[in-house]
Amino acid sequence: MQLCQLTASLSVSPQLxxxxxxxxxxxxxxxxxxxxxxxxxxxxxxxxxIREACEAHGISLHYLPVNPKEFTDQQGIEFGQLxxxxxxxxxxxxxxxxxxTNLWALSAVGKLSLDEILSTAKDAGYDVSKLSxxxxxxxxxxx
Length: 143
Prior knowledge:
Blueprint: E1 4-5, E2 10-13, H1 21-26, E3 31-34, H2 47-55, E4 60-63, H3 73-85, E5 90-93, H4 98-107, H5 114-123, H6 132-142
Helix pairs in contact: 3-4
């Protein structure tokens, strides 16, 4: 499992497996968010299985499935609201970590500049530049 830190309280990763729980514990993660819909891929474990493994170690799991090709600005805002309500540090996962990073980028509008969002994602290994226009438009709506 590869953890990519976006902020002091949020990391993202590709698909988790039950075997990754020890590494999650070692990283001090308190909460996990699953952004991958169950049955999206044949090789992915059900979120209930990951939830059970997490909860056995006192880590909560929140299921917030998002279609990677059809995620909305509102889902990004909801992701940010969820982050603010959870015990951190938080680990969000999906198939590759990209959709979690995209949701974070949308949730960061109004808190960070476009350049800060792009560079933070890039430093974590993700390119969210394709969201630049959406981020700019969302920022204007929030003014």
